Amino acid sequence: MSIVITGAAGHLGRLAAGFVLERLPASEVILVTRRPEELDDFAARGAQVRHGDFDDPDALPAALAGAERMLLISTDAVGRRIVQHRNAVDAAVAAGVRHIAYTSVQKPTPENPAFVVGEHAATEAAVRESGLAWTMLRNGLYSELLVPSGAQAVASGRLVHNAGDGRTAQVSRVDCAAVAAAVLAGGGHEDAVYDVTGPELLSRADIAALIAEVSGRPVEPVPVDDSEFIAGLLAAGVPDALAARFVTWGQAIRKGVLDPLTTVVEDLTGRPPRAVREVLIEHRDELFG
Predict the structure, then answer these.
(1) How many Å apart are CA 113 and CA 240, to the nearest integer?
(2) Structural domains in the chain, sorted by start
(3) How many helices, marked H, and strands, marked E, lie in the chain?
(4) pTM assigned to the model
């Protein structure tokens, strides 16, 4: 079984490639990226590294050729992702791919105010309409994203948020990659939707307490409303457009649409997911000195 991973030079792509290579011969693994030179280590292990760019649709089928299953990792090109992802889906069909696993977001429905929802919902629709088998990997919020915000909270002594009492089961990228590898390299999973989550639901107050525990410094959770949150971002130099996007995550958490808690990680990988505390400890030295 040959598989292809797009965006293979990114954080999630590299992790997924590593897990796949634990399960399949390197000769069956195709890694597609705009930056092939960054995957020399995988090429040395025998994986096929190919150049591919979602903004160059004519060349994409050749980059995907020979693969039966594809991990379509969502790009970071907000505002252009629908076109990019549709190009990738069309190329997969043209290349003879039979199954697409797509990294989506939890609850990509109109009730979810997170700014990324529209692009993920449109991509899920394109994948379903392709006629190929599919798996939706609806990853929770990455635990690693708490590291930079945790560092700011440690420096200021305050974790400012607009999430209210909402809770999320933050999940490590490592676990998301392991689940993706299990889907790619294992049998089944056709037309399945998986909410990929960490092991516990945490409020922002819980997270502030964890940051304080790991850093050894006091961190106070400071709930604010949306307008105060945006004002704080703007005062910190965040551009208007980014501030408007960031505020929607707190809105989604507050609304309770990012609160699935599942056993998918353990069910598919055979090991429990990493807790937020573990991720913070892993980054303690670089963040908290």
Answers:
(1) 18
(2) 3-140+173-196+259-273 (3.40.50.720)
(3) 13, 11
(4) 0.95
